[in-house]
Structure formats: C-alpha cells, structure tokens
Amino acid sequence: MVNAFQAAKDVVIEVDKAWNNLGLMLDKTGARINSLRAKAGTLGPASRAELDAIERSLAGMRAQVQRDPLGVSAGFEARIEPVLKRLETAFEARERHQRRVGDGLAAAHRHFKEPA
Fold first, then answer.
1. So where are the chain's domains?
2. CB 61 within 8 A of CB 76
C-alpha cells in the first residue's frame, strides 16, 4: 500500500511540475517564434515554413496541456526545441556573416578614400 501511494504521489508531483512549467515554456516559445519570424526574411522560405509548422505544433500542444501535460512536455523537447535551436543558430550565423561582410566593406571603403 505504501509503495502504491508513493508511486501515485510521484506521478502527481511530476504532473504538477510539468503543468507549472508548461505555461511559461509555451509562452517563451511563442516569443522565440515571433522573434525568429521577424527575422525570417533573412532565413529564407524553408525557415518560414518550419516556423509555420512549429506554430501549428505549439497550438496543438496548448490544446493538449489540459489532457496530458507530461506528453506535451516530452513532445516539446522532442519536436519543437531542436528546430528552434537550429533556426536560432542559423540566424545567428547569418548575422555574424553579415557583420563581417559589412565590416569588410567599410574597411575597403576607408582604404579607397585615403589618399595614395
């Protein structure tokens, strides 16, 4: 009886923890998606399509939270987080590249403006 109670208690604690973290996690993810969407023009149409797919998954997860918070938590970590990280990394790499190109162009411009 004690073992059964402890097992049930562990499940309730796990569900409660997932429930409490999910709202914040889903809201933060929505903000990350919005930030990436604002920058998606530089990432290309494939990235925008991935963002659309993530938004659809996120909407489904929001609806599922009431029924299965543990499943939503696991699904988020497996499906959404890796794609967001990859898109964020790609955007950061593109920003670094654009800064380097801009710095190089500025240096070349200064070089050619100097008297010989």
1. 2-113
2. yes
